[in-house]
Amino acid sequence: NFNSDKFVLTASKDERSKMIREDRIPDVRTVIQSDMGLRYLLRNDILTACDDARAELKYQLTKQTDADSAETVDGQELLDLLLVAQSACSKWFDLIDEKNVNEALSIVSREG
């Protein structure tokens, strides 16, 4: 449950003390904007990598069906793009609180 008056700062004790002394504690609005910004950046990484992978696959398929081409298909670029998408997707899912995931799964299993 979201509470606009409270958030958890996950810094070391020394770091927290220093931030308090220097009046550098972020407010809730800044924390939310930062989190949303990261989510959008990761989403964009996923979409870009998927678009690039789709284009690479299309290129490789075109190259493979070309009757004049005796080249072998090199799937390394496609694999690299898919790994980038997988990594960004994993990072995006890591931002979701495990408690929320368990709650959603519980709701789905009751309704299913």
What would you say this structure looks like, in words?
The protein has helices at 13-21, 28-65, 76-94, 98-111. The protein has 112 residues and is mainly alpha-helical. Helix 2 packs antiparallel against helix 3. The chain is elongated, with a radius of gyration of 22 Å. The model has no long low-confidence stretch (mean pLDDT 83).
Question: Gist?
Answer:
By secondary structure, the protein is an all-alpha fold. The protein contains four helices and no strands.
Q: How many runs of DSSP E, i.e. beta strands?
A: 0
What's the SSE pattern? HHHH
Pairing-aware structural class of the strands and helices? Answer: mainly alpha
User: Mean of the pLDDT scores?
Assistant: 83
Radius of gyration over alpha carbons?
A: 22 Å
Strand content: under 5%
User: Could you say which overall geometry the principal axes of the C-alpha atoms support?
Assistant: elongated
What percentage of residues falls in helices of 4 or more residues?
over 70%
What's the end-to-end separation, in Å?
24 Å
- Low-pLDDT stretches are none
- Biggest beta-sheet profile: none
What is the count of DSSP helices, taking H or I runs of 4+ residues? Answer: 4
Attribute tags:
0% strand; mainly alpha; 71% helix; 112 residues; 4 helices; elongated
Task: Please write out the topology.
Elements (H helix, E strand, L loop, with lengths): L12 H9 L6 H38 L10 H19 L3 H14 L1
